[in-house]
């Protein structure tokens, strides 16, 4: 189930009163700290600018259905809650994990009856809408089309693949970005001081705070869940608001790194994303893959994942490595790396660690060639040194009026008309006519490409 920001999603539809009911002292810290206004929402600045569609929708009380797409813990449920509260609409929640067509229709029928009887509108929040079948999504359409409900549907998957077109076309699609470390840190610090949270009853060491942020992996709800567990692990401190007065008088309630590790049963990985460890570990990872040591590669991959490194950063490095260190010795390496990067965006962590691991293993085991980077570096060096030269006249654009008078295109040999589809003619400028930038190796699939390129080059250059 989606860990949407501060989401305590029920399996069946519930009325808007459930939101208010979650403010009680024994409610989870993440639920008590749910932002009440857009100004309290952390992150998503691209959606919160003055005059933005989201602000106009909520502050202007405009009827419009929303489709929220983003990773877990980024604010999807919170936005639905704020919309409901600030526009005085009833909040009804349906989880796509447990609800079917019957429950969807019942929620819409109830909203319609309420609208007719009292005039009060309803926010229908559908969590994990991508899990709904086409028939279940179709059941939402009458309520959306007739505006019996303001639909807010949340998904962690690309809606263009998982949501039916009629629903997409009737909804405003908002993309939520992963929370940054600074965003998560702000959420934790607010919960420590806020009266709804721990009300200043504890202090958190800098190392412990850094570890909470790392463990959260951009998920605000997860960070508050871990903070609540760590506060509870102190023994004398209750994270519940009913004990705030007693807790505030305690001056030595300090959450340190060891407390966090014990509370969440997960040891801190010594890893500073802004310091030497960040660069040392990624360097060791790349060099291990380049060196074909699968086990070492997986070790460094695991260290980065467990430390909360941005998986997109890891994926980008693998895409670069696929061309820089593997290249055409194993042509599918780039395909695999790009697919892993796309999977990271589509699926998110923790599941995407499998895609990263698969790409890491394939690239580590693949035959290696640095011929691609050597080729482009050599060509770039010539260009930078001034070896530019004029484009041969027969290769110049001949599609505009007057080009024929300049002999542009004259003498060009159409390759498809030549034997084997390869015509003997000059392509490079005179200044680099004899340059041989690409030097294939004899490794893997590149060995066959080397033989082919040498044969083609002789044909092109008439040797």
Please give a structural write-up.
With 463 residues, the protein is an alpha/beta fold. It folds into four domains: 17-175, P-loop containing nucleotide triphosphate hydrolases (Rossmann fold, 3-Layer(aba) Sandwich); 181-264, Orthogonal Bundle (Helicase, Ruva Protein, domain 3), CATH 1.10.8; 276-365, Zinc Finger, Delta Prime, domain 3; 377-461, DNA polymerase III clamp loader subunits, C-terminal domain (post-AAA+ oligomerization domain-like, Orthogonal Bundle). 48% of the residues lie in helices and 7% in strands. It is built from 22 helices and seven strands. It has helices at 17-21, 29-32, 45-48, 53-59, 76-86, 101-118, 134-138, 141-145, 159-162, 165-169, 181-193, 206-216, 220-233, 244-248, 257-264, 276-290, 294-306, 311-326, 332-347, 352-365, 371-384, 446-461, and strands at 65-69, 90-95, 122-127, 150-155, 171-175, 203-204, 254-255. The chain has a five-stranded parallel sheet, with helices on both faces. A two-stranded parallel sheet has the order 6-7. Helix 11 crosses helix 12, helix 12 (206-216) packs parallel to helix 15 (257-264) and helix 19 (332-347) packs antiparallel against helix 20. The longest helix is centred in the N-terminal third of the chain and has 18 residues, at 101-118. It is globular. The model is unreliable at 1-21 and 241-250 (pLDDT under 50).
